[in-house]
Amino acid sequence: MRILLSGATGFVGRALCDSLIAGGSEVYILSRSPQKAKLSLPRVSEAFHWTAGEAPPPEAFDGVHAVVHLAGESVVGRWTDAKRRAITDSRVMGTRHLVDGLRRCSIRPRILVSASAIGYYGDRGEEDLVETSEPGDDFLAKTAIAWEREARQAEDLDMRVVRLRTGIVLAKDGGALGQMLLPAKLGLSGPLGPGTQWWSWIHRDDLMGMIRFAIEEEDLSGPLNCVAPNPMRQREFSQTLGKVLHRPAFLPAPSIALELLLGGFATELLSSKRVLPSAAMTLGYPFAHPNLEGALRAALDR
User: Fold this and answer.
1) What's the Cα-to-Cα distance from 245 to each of 124, 236, 239, 260, 297, rounded to whole Å?
2) Does residue 189 register a pLDDT over 90?
3) How many angstroms separate the CA atoms of 252 and 188, rounded?
């Protein structure tokens, strides 16, 4: 299968390139810096220049069976007005222009797998959240709603569209876990804010598996919660990480300190989302890492 991938040089994209190529697929990528991307990902077949402000070049879609769209500004960092615009525009406008490129194809790929996030649901306390749950109304929820709306335009092109609502991705070389490792190793890990908020997580290997599953499973379309089946309260997450690292995990980070340090992004760490992978479980996706301690040990090679 020939697959076109955006966001290939990111934390998830790099691993997905390796996973798809190892499975026998031919991978093409879209990048703002195609020559640099090709050097860092030498196993990909071709790299095409693309920015979120324009449609991809028509030749990028030649012979492609599936498009996986992961590109977007990181949500990590202080949410200044400029950062918020970059988060929204890179997702909404980028997806809009990608679909414009698909619309211009005489022979289109059959499948679009487009990134989204569990931020779609907003802060929901103790509520169990599945793919049919209503969206939230905070900044990330509104961004995800608009993001998914653009991806769904490809359904009008007779394409199967899967929207990946991804939780906290666990791997030691990036993402939330990568940022948590240093303080955790120093014994400075502990509850963030109250610690009672639900965190919905997934090992990066399972995210790779679910993306491949989304490409291959003909009965799958619409939203797909990319989370493990066992969400954890944040306090328990920190305690489990401390256990795996053989370090204490009791020093709390007060909400006000997080808000001063991280600004708007602190609300994402402090919000509660008990998200369940209902669609994946119904279709029989086999989770490699369903439990947090095993997932953390695998992520950290312990």
Assistant:
1) 30, 14, 10, 28, 9
2) no
3) 8
Q: Which domains does the chain have, with CATH numbers?
A: 2-167+204-227+278-285 (3.40.50.720)
pLDDT, position 251:
77
User: At residue 75, does pLDDT exceed 70?
Assistant: yes
Report how far Cα 104 is from the mean position of its chain's Cα atoms.
27
Phi, psi of 114 (to 5 degrees): -115, 135
Distance of CA 181 to the CA centre of its chain: 20
Contacts of 66 (CB under 8 A, 6+ apart): 1, 3, 4, 109, 110, 111, 112, 113, 215
Largest CA distance in the chain: 59
Percent of the chain past pLDDT 70, that is, above it, reads: 100
Residue 273 CA: distances (Å) to CA of 6, 82, 200, 249 = 27, 26, 7, 22
Q: Which two tokens stand for residue 108?
A: 């289109």
DSSP states of 105-162 as a string? -SS--SEEEEEEEGGGG---TT-EE-TTSPP--SHHHHHHHHHHHHHHGGGGGT-EEE
Give Cα 2 to chain centroid, integer Å.
Answer: 22
* Identity of the residue numbered 83: K
> Which residues, other chains included, contact 98 with Cβ-Cβ below 8 Å and sequence gap of 6+?
6, 55, 56, 67, 69
Provide mean pLDDT across the span 189-215.
95
The tokens 């049919």 sit on which residue? Answer: 132
